[in-house]
Each structure stands twice: as C-alpha cells, then as structure tokens.
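Hi C.,

You asked whether I'd gotten around to modeling the 102-residue construct. I have! Everything is below, sequence then structure, no commentary in between.
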Amino acid sequence: MTVDVRDVPEAKRYEARVDGASDLAGRADYIRTAELIAFVHTEVSPQYEGRGVGGALAATALDEARTAGLRVLATCPFIAGWIARHPDYQDLLYQARSNVSD
C-alpha cells in the first residue's frame, strides 16, 4: 500500500490518498502563519484506520514544517501523540515565551 500525502494550502490541510485512488483516505487540518503551523484536527477514513495513513500524514507534514523552518503547535491529539512517540520531532514544538520576569 502506497500513501501519497500532499499539502493543499487552499484547503488548509494535508491530504492522504492510497494507491493513487481519488477518494480521500485522511487529512490533517492546520492553521499556518509565517513562523508557525498549528495542527488542529486529523482524521482518517474508517477503512484506512490502522494502516499507516495517519502516520504518513504526520511524518510528511512535520518534515515539511522542518524544511520550512516552522514551529509546530500540536493542538490535535493525534499529532501531539505522534510527536510524543517520535522524539526526533519534538524539537519542532512551539514553546511559548513568557514576558514575566522573575
């Protein structure tokens, strides 16, 4: 099974398709600024659950965030959990800076 993941900026999401099919196997919705990409929702069609579609979405989206120099805000539980299980992506996580001095 081949999972093709592509950024679709006009829809503000990454889309996954399997084996060249036209139907959508999964998607990862985001909000993007010049410095940050916030993943807000990930969904995989029931017939593709457990087959690596979600992982392919996460890996592709995060690899592209790294290439673009973006920080990642993972409000989506799936993306947050995926990053927690793949420590080599944790350096991408957005860290809020406090303006409060000690």
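If it helps when you're writing up: Helices lie at 53-68, 77-85.

Thanks,
B.
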